[in-house]
Amino acid sequence: MKKIFSTVKAMSTTLASKSFDGGSIMQTMLEELLQRYGSDSLSYLSLDGKKQYFFEKNNKGFIAYVVIQNTAVCIGNPVCAISNYLQVVNEFILFCKEHKYKICFCSINEEFAKLLQNNEFVISKYGEEALLDLHTYSLNGGKKEKLRQKIRRAEKSGIRTVEYVPGLRRDQKLEEKIQDLSKEWYAQKNGQLTFTLGDLNFDNPLGRRFFVALDKKEEVAAILMFLPFDYQNGYFLDVMRRKSESVPGVMEKAIIDAAMKIRNEGGSWISLGLAPLAGIDQFNLKATHLEKLFNFVYYNGNSIFGFQSLYQYKKKFDPSCWNSRYVAHEKKLSTIKVAYVMAKARNVNGVSKLFYQSLQKNILKRVLS
Predict the structure, then answer these.
(1) Domain spanning 135-267: which superfamily?
(2) pLDDT tens for residues 147-159?
(3) SS3 of residue 241 by DSSP
(4) Which residue in 109, 123, 277, 301 is deepest, having the highest Cβ count within 10 Å?
């Protein structure tokens, strides 16, 4: 990494990495930097108490990460001015060298991926992010027929969508119902996703927007939570949960209702989030080992991970565009190690050594043979 280390070697400033403290000065710093530089759709996922934060020496930006098996697994792009990307990464690399950490960036955009590729990181496509352009998006067209059917079914059953704004007035009964729904939702999952999904954070919304689908009995049928990006011109769908017995179409109706409200207020974009492992061409002559592994898991692990199902769900909305997301890691990290630390970061309680051993002994041999 000659280009990066050419500037890093001259630094003598002590760099610090700190854990999040909800009532600390650091939280204020994080929030101010996010409001100033949180243009990427994943930026606000940084505000999670389970992550650590590396600050640039002049506090002009930060990188959110977790450490797994001596690997710093980072979520999204650095939160800083784009012109400062290289400076922040330079300092972070020095920090990781001092602590003997390897580096893996997850879910980064194309611009940041190219910067890292120019500095000898291995770049692999990770998936595609579905985006709705609110200036042009509509429910017309044959591709959205099934979506319209779902929405009509929810409407006929009496589902309505309301926005809950805890910053204006707290509704403890409503929040209790939402928490009960969340407990039911988590119980159906194999552990809580902890790295690339946020939480509701009613106590400190910080630009989050909450939309609740209510049935005829005024019971909570679904909850959506959006995070701001592009300086609040866009919103990223981070949390979507529904009751198991809710009417089909409740989630689709809530998403479209929220999108239309945001559009009417002047919003430009809705991100439906990432479809992990989608859109990877394993037959590309330049495909990395990690891309081949991702492709194998996508087509052979749907019953476990549901990646194909998630892609098809987002595709139903006929997104205005799909933006590629990437993984960037140091060459010293093996394909197995990268896959393991990424999976561990996503679901701390659901990935064991058995997964790592199975990946090493069985899956990888089949993919790369």
Answers:
(1) Gcn5-related N-acetyltransferase (GNAT) (3.40.630.30)
(2) 999 999 999 999 9
(3) strand
(4) 277
